[in-house]
Amino acid sequence: MKWKQMKKFLAVSMTSLVLVGCGMQTEQPTDETEPEETESVEVSNVTVNVTSGITEAVEKVNDGVVSIINLRRNDYQSWASFYGAQQDEDEYLQAGTGSGAVYKIEGDRAYVFTNNHVVEGSDAVDVLLQDGTRVPAEVEGADLWTDLAVLSIDAQYADTVLEFGDSDNLKVGEPAIAIGSPLGTEFASSVTSGIISGLGRTVPVDTNTDGQPDWEMTAIQTDAAINPGNSGGPLVNIAGQVVGINSMKISSATIEGMGFAIPSNDAVNIINQLEQNGEVIRPYLGITMIDLSLISRAQRTNDLNLPEDVKTGILVSRVENDSPAAEAGIEPGDVIVSFDGESVDNTVQLRQVLYTSEVETTISVDLYRNGEPRVISLSLEAAQ
To answer: Catalytic residue at 147?
Structure first.
């Protein structure tokens, strides 16, 4: 082959090799032929109907879901005001955020539910609406034990009211939708979906952060993603009804998809009391309690003279003057084993039985005093 012909062959071969790598045809025109014209590719927009039960539920409730902004007083502002200095700082600073939803409009006020821990410690609270409007809110009431709170805002800012569903009729495996503001107001109205993973779950709660559970919450378990900031927002069923109020999740590198919500049937009674009274009216005993399981076997036997088979209960370490317990004759050193006919192994169980009892009723308390069993009648009074 002559050199001139070989140069032409190599040029055509190299051109073919490069274009194969670009995903185009390998057969290329030579420099002696004109390239063929190719048809242009047209892109058309296609509208797809993506309506589903979840989208319909979200559309029904979304405008009623709000962000809650916990505000704390600015110490610099207070100092500047006292000394007459120039006040350039805001009076309040944002301390935290959460979620909530409008559940009622009455007169000139709209009522919003959320979690107690969302508004706890606040000097002021704002509500951020779906359209970006930010309005001041009044805290009508809050309850530490159930982690619920009720706020109110001017009714002119509320159009959509969420409806409570029956949490007792939930089924494991049915759809669950969580709506709220995870990680702050920048992600307001985020929607996550999953299923009801479990019902009647008992979740220990440490209210005073001492590392020991003070309460046990009965909760709905869901795998719908619940992140910091979702607290207080609604857990919604496929009909767009609130069946739970998102409250907590288990956070661990080895655990995923375990969120918990307060059942709507439990929440409604508390919400009504908070709206009407500003608090939940519960009975109290007026005693300081210690779990008997924390007392050594030697102390149970030698100091309390308890029978060998009495290993659980509540040791009374202190009795307040003029309290229901004092009037009933309960004394320090008594060990309570049954309250209102229900066995109580620890302070959490006793507190749960007590807080579900009616005030101004008389109940029986089974206890041991110096090793001897006794039954005492106790009249329950409202906590002051």
So the answer is: yes
